[in-house]
Amino acid sequence: MDAIKQIYYNDFGTSFYWRKHNEIILDKVQLIFRETGFYFSTEELKQFNNCIKECFSLNTNCEDCTLKNYCHKFLLKTPCSQVDLAVTREELNKVKDLVEGTLFKIALNDYLYGEGMN
């Protein structure tokens, strides 16, 4: 009996649902990367995805910089107003993949086991 139900993972982190009394708790997603864990609703996960997109758009002036993949100058906001993360461009790309992959899998499962069951 596993304590979690994995949703998505990459080489940077993972996302999963917790199980309680052998039931999957679908109202929140545990997102873990680096040494950081967030417990987000799907709406908060979508907000975080928007924060990631905003971080990319605010840092377009770094395209020609040779240090852009290693510089920790990228300030990534989160749906938690008290928490911002300093990340490299490479980490930002990996968090983007993790969040978008998680949202995709959630939407796919909602479709397959919801309206797609017709």
Q: How would you summarize what this structure contains?
A:
This protein has 118 residues and is an alpha+beta fold.
Descriptive report:
This protein is of the alpha+beta class and 118 residues long. It has one domain (4-117). It has two helices and seven strands. The protein has helices spanning 42-58, 89-112; strands at 4-9, 13-20, 23-24, 29-33, 36-40, 74-77, 84-87. Strands 1, 2, 3, 4 and 5 form a five-stranded antiparallel sheet that branches. A two-stranded antiparallel ribbon has the order 6-7. A hairpin with a 3-residue loop joins strand 1 (4-9) and strand 2. Helix 1 (42-58) runs antiparallel to helix 2. The longest helix has 24 residues, at 89-112. The chain is elongated, with a radius of gyration of 16 Å.
Helical amount among residues, as a percent range?
A: 25-40%
Q: For the terminal residues, how far apart are their CA atoms? A: 31 Å
Mean pLDDT across all amino acids? 90
The count of β-strands is 7
Strand fraction: 25-35%
Count of domains: 1
Question: Tell me, what's the shape?
Answer: elongated
Provide the structure class.
alpha+beta
Number of helices: 2
Q: Give the SSE order as H and E letters.
A: EEEEEHEEH
Uncertain segments: none
Radius of gyration: 16 Å
How is the main sheet built? 5 strands, antiparallel
How do the helices and strands line up, and which of them pair or pack?
Layout (H helix, E strand, L loop, with lengths): L3 E6 L3 E8 L2 E2 L4 E5 L2 E5 L1 H17 L15 E4 L6 E4 L1 H24 L6
Antiparallel strand pairs: 1-2, 2-3, 2-4, 4-5, 6-7
Helix pairs in contact: 1-2
